[in-house]
Amino acid sequence: MRYFIELSYNGEKYHGWQNQPNAISVQEVIEKALSTVLRKDVSILGAGRTDAGVHAKQMFAHVDVEEEINRTELVFKLNSFLPQDIAIQDIHAVKEDAHARFDAIGRTYEYWIVTEKNPFHNQSAHLVYKDLDVDLMNEAAKELFNYEDFKCFSKTHTDVKTYFCTIETVCWEQRNELLVFTIRADRFLRNMVRAIVGTLLEVGLGKLSIAGFKQIIESRNRNNAGTSVPGKALYLTAVTYPAETFKTHG
Amino acid sequence: MRYFIELSYNGEKYHGWQNQPNAISVQEVIEKALSTVLRKDVSILGAGRTDAGVHAKQMFAHVDVEEEINRTELVFKLNSFLPQDIAIQDIHAVKEDAHARFDAIGRTYEYWIVTEKNPFHNQSAHLVYKDLDVDLMNEAAKELFNYEDFKCFSKTHTDVKTYFCTIETVCWEQRNELLVFTIRADRFLRNMVRAIVGTLLEVGLGKLSIAGFKQIIESRNRNNAGTSVPGKALYLTAVTYPAETFKTHG
To answer: What is the mean pLDDT of chain A?
Structure first.
């Protein structure tokens, strides 16, 4: 039977979500805990991969288990085995062919910025010690709705077939001491959010006009966009599935 | 001339605010930075002392400087010298006899609790992995308004003359994933907030009745109150002064 594991992690000490040689990943640590608890080798497949240092407030991964499981008990046991920086929120019964990656219809990311030295967000937000024109950054951000091809914000060595994404939400807002950028889309290209934020910061600093921002998108050339901002301030906050994904056994 | 330094710090790596032998304090680190920037030995006096590991989102300390200073420049220089976990927000001109400790008329603390494993609040909140009756905890907390002598919540070896405090605000509220206890009073006794929270948690867990909570206060005996909760989840969030404190030179 297939299940969706709903989880969160502080990515600070991990080289991203996905398994890789010679570096510790979130996936690997969860697979090890699952294998210990279920007493057999178990692999999981995540809704996407986050880069080194990137966090997830909500992530899903699917797993296949032969026998019926007590989900509440499994959540409890996994949380006991897992380190403090990874937490399992829930385990959902899903239909047999549900796929954590291919069935996801939306992903939401937040990027956290502080514009003053902040002892409580040194690890969790990116410090931009300058005045930012947030209204202008919002105006530029809204231009993203007018485009579909975001090759200019994608890592160049990537195996995707198209650079098309549908942007559904985009917004800069002040939340107490944090300046938060929220973006939701059906899919994201590698490094896309961090490249968008880096480019919008140039707008906010007065170094790039809105017309210039549009030209960058139209150029489809990563070299024209801004510097990618650090991963430590990036949070995957939601992954969305169609309701029928969860309508099944259990 | 006397100035008030307004600052914040993440107390995780410090043995509290106040200078002490053989352990690093926040006061010591700020005095060192000030002495470097002003090129002479400088001492400061804080609004109060926080215990080891306790944080401050707003703290004040006074300092005497002979010559006129450029406050904006001094804030900038101090922040460059100070580590990431201490930040200076502002330097205020105050009247000549203003006293950071004796003139403070109110102090506000928050205590942060999570009731589920949380990868983002492992260091910043206290995990109580049980169901808490928050309504009952609020009901008990309101009883604090009916008392003035809080000896039962004070460290026994302390040099205070009285155990009288006036509680001005007290409240438990859910803020997203955090259960936050806020308390404001004219003054606090040593360890008082952590002892109150520990005792109110016993109420929330159903181990102590409201009548029992009142009996503890009336007993004036620290041994009757609950266990003190960890310092890592305690935040001094505001120190209040009368407006005239800031009405002066500069």
So the answer is: 95
Crossing angle of helices A192-204 and A134-142, in 10° steps, is 130
Residue bearing tokens 């239909």: A95
Which tens digit of pLDDT belongs to each residue from A57-70?
Answer: 999 999 999 888 89
Beta strand extents in B105-201 (DSSP E only): 106-114, 126-127, 167-175, 178-185
Given this model, what pLDDT does residue B249 score? 53
Which residue on chain A is closest to B86 by alpha carbon? A119
Residue B136 has pLDDT above 80, yes or no: yes
Structure tokens at B31: 């005095």
Q: Half-sphere exposure of residue B33, counting CA atoms within 13 Å on the CB side?
A: 21
**Contacts of residue A199, Cβ cutoff 8 Å, sequence gap at least 6:** A153, A208, A213, A216, A225, A226
C-beta separation of B171 from B142 below 8 A: no
> Looking at A102, A127, A162, which one is the last position of a domain?
A102
Tell whether A96 and A149 lie within a shared domain: no
Q: Would residue A250 count as lying in a domain?
A: no
The pLDDT of residue B159: 77
What percentage of chain A reaches a pLDDT higher than 90?
92
List the Cα angle A233/A78/A5 in 5-degree steps.
65
| Known active-site residue B51 | yes
Smallest CA–CA distance, residue A18 to chain B, in Å, is: 18
Domain identity same for B8 and B60: yes
Evaluate if residue B206 carries a pLDDT over 60: yes
Average the pLDDT over A184-190 and give the result: 95
Q: How far is A120 from chain B (nearest CA, A)?
A: 6
pLDDT of A27-43, one tens digit each?
999 999 999 999 999 99
Joined tokens for residue B206? 């159903």
Looking at the structure, tell me whether residues A116 and A231 fall in a common domain: yes
A175 shares its domain with A123 = yes
Say yes or no: A58 contacts chain B, CB-CB below 8 A.
Answer: no
Instruction: Examine the domain organization and report whether B177 and B132 are in the same domain.
Output: yes
User: Which among B84, B116, B122 has the least Cβ separation from residue A85?
Assistant: B122
* Total of domains in chain A: 2
Query: Is residue B153 within 8 Å of B175, Cβ to Cβ?
Result: no
Query: What is the per-residue pLDDT for A247?
Result: 76
Which residue out of A51, A85, A159, A186 is catalytically annotated? A51
| A214 — pLDDT class (breaks 50, 70, 90) | very high
Q: Is A232 on the interface with B (CB under 8 A)?
A: no
ipTM: 0.89
In a domain, B53, yes or no: yes
Considering just the CA atoms, what is the radius of gyration of chain A in Å?
19
